């Protein structure tokens, strides 16, 4: 169980491959635990463990459909990561612009 006094670090949470795969699956549509198990290489307890961590981080929310728990992606917490990546996007954009200019001059 997660230490309740430790702040959530989204980078640590999404660094784990299985959690990223679950996020990718939920990006396309909400899914039940059973569907996530079928689409992954994980057992039901493994998927449930990762879903609990994602839920605690605010990355997924649950709704009920009869007896099934349906998991939905909540993209809002990913804004923190998007904001962190923004300066790096600018670096790559500048480099790609310079490459384009160089290639144009070579023609």
TrEMBL record:
CDD domains: HTH_ARSR. The lineage of its organism: Bacteria, Bacillati, Bacillota, Bacilli, Bacillales. Signal peptide: none annotated. This is Metalloregulator ArsR/SmtB family transcription factor. The keyword Transcription regulation applies. Keywords: DNA-binding, Transcription, Transcription regulation. InterPro entries: ArsR-like_HTH, HTH_ArsR_DNA-bd_dom, HTH_MetalResp_TranReg, WH-like_DNA-bd_sf, WH_DNA-bd_sf. Residues 1-93 form the HTH arsR-type domain. It comes from the Bacteria.
């Amino acid at each position: 169980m997660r230490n309740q006094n430790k702040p959530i670090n989204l980078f640590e949470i999404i660094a784990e491959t299985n959690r990223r795969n679950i996020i990718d699956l939920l990006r396309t549509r909400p899914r039940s635990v059973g569907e996530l198990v079928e689409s992954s290489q994980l057992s039901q307890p493994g998927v449930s463990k990762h879903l609990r961590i994602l839920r605690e981080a605010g990355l997924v929310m649950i709704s009920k459909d009869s007896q099934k728990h349906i998991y939905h992606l909540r993209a809002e917490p990913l804004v923190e990561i998007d904001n962190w990546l923004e300066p790096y996007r600018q670096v790559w954009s500048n480099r790609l612009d310079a490459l384009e200019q160089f290639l144009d001059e070579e023609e």
